[in-house]
Write a structure and sequence with these properties.
single chain, 391 residues, alpha/beta, Alkaline Phosphatase, subunit A, Alpha-Beta Plaits, six-stranded mixed beta sheet
Length: 391
């Protein structure tokens, strides 16, 4: 490593472009995702799509990314990673960054939840039934069932291919604090059943123009063991979670948590963090996944990626000499693919150490996301034994 700063004075940014996969993983068939390629299919579908700043860093040099010209002298080291855990959801991917390999994935409910979950949930919150109870897009199910919810007061319950229990309610029918209490009641019932998160989904407006609000709240299962975040924190390294990182890790291993409204706000918060703190700044930019991947909107996804690419030089300029930036993703969500669910894909890996020595190397195909955590521990001189550092 090139930095001469002490371990607690160093700074690294781990930026997760949520769902930006770069081609089907070798085990994609087991997940029903043969042919999925989030970034590639966007590039092949959307006219005028280009990411010049990411190309200069070396995204086109990554194996399999043959739709962008490779950089002659990439400014970052480049590669791709294969998930080792059994899953393709948010928690599984992020936890593997931190060193947890999930041999048994979380449980999903493709046919909705059984009476063993719904009945005790209704009893706990004092309602006589729920609406929905099926896998569905959140915006779609709110439009379909919002009026009935307003008439009956019954919660809209739904899931997805992710292991989540989601509860939607109109803020004029169920106040947000009550909705959060409902989620807490559901948490005690569904987490022992192998679900990773309960999500409050408040919305406002009149049918059919309902709009989900920023008062979403996730009630997440904590990691089953310590992650590299705990090791960093115990070593005196400041660990800041930006976006939904705090929710994903239930705050475990984090010294600071900063919520964000959208991708632009996430970049703004990251820039502010670069101006006032050291340590690890762990960022999730969720719009790619939530607004465009799940909604199968390749044009919107492309616009969001090009917007981030435009912001990238500002992030690089804000970094100090010796700072480390790692750009990756947690899974795929190909907006051109069938269904509305995540896709099992390789994820990109770009590693930029400002005026450092990691720039321009081919990091190849990493066999696990855990190499991220190993590399971050290496950067901060913290003992960690899961994964292999690429620094």
């Amino acid at each position: 490593m090139s930095s001469t700063r002490s371990s607690t004075d160093r700074r690294a940014v781990l930026m997760v472009l949520d769902s930006v996969g770069v081609g089907e993983a070798p085990d994609a068939e087991q997940f029903g995702d043969v042919g999925a390629d989030t970034l590639g299919n966007i590039a092949r579908t959307v006219a005028g799509f280009d990411l010049p700043n990411l190309r200069r860093m070396g995204i086109g040099n990554i194996e399999g990314v043959d739709y962008f010209d490779p950089a002659d002298d990439p400014s970052a080291s480049f590669g791709r990673m294969q998930e080792q855990s059994n899953g393709k959801d948010t928690a599984t991917g992020h936890w593997e960054f931190g060193g947890i390999i999930m041999e048994e994935g979380f449980r999903t409910f493709p046919d909705g939840f059984g009476d063993d979950i719904i009945d005790p949930f209704c009893e706990a919150i004092g309602v006589d039934g729920v609406l929905g109870n099926r896998p569905e897009s959140g915006t779609v199910i709110i439009e379909q069932l919002g009026r009935e919810h307003e008439q009956t007061g019954q919660p809209i319950v739904y899931t997805s291919a992710d292991p989540v229990f989601q509860i939607a309610a109109h803020e004029d029918v169920v106040d947000v604090d009550t909705l959060y209490d409902w989620c807490k009641a559901a948490y005690d019932i569904v987490i022992p059943q192998g679900i990773s998160r309960v999500i409050a989904r408040p919305f406002v407006g009149e049918w059919p123009d309902y709009e989900r609000t920023a008062r979403r709240k996730d009630f997440s299962c904590p990691p089953p063991q310590n992650t590299v975040l705990d090791a960093l924190k115990d070593a005196g390294v400041r660990t800041t979670g930006v976006g939904k990182i705090g929710d994903i890790f239930s705050g475990q291993g984090l010294t600071d948590q900063i919520k964000t409204r959208d991708n632009d706000h996430g970049v703004e918060v990251t820039l502010n963090c670069l101006g006032d703190r050291n340590g690890l700044i762990f960022v999730n930019l969720v719009d790619f996944d939530s607004k465009f991947g799940h909604r199968r909107n390749p044009e919107g996804y492309a616009d969001a990626l090009m917007r981030f690419d435009d912001q990238l030089p500002v992030l690089l300029q804000a970094m100090d000499q010796g700072d480390l930036l790692i750009i990756t993703a947690d899974h795929g969500n190909d907006p051109t693919y069938e269904g509305t669910d995540h896709t099992r894909e390789y994820v990109p890996l770009l590693v930029y150490e400002k005026q450092g020595q990691t720039n321009g190397r081919n990091l190849g195909t990493r066999s696990t996301f855990a190499d991220i955590g190993a590399s971050i521990a290496d950067f901060f001189d913290v003992d960690w034994d899961v994964g292999q550092s690429f620094l």
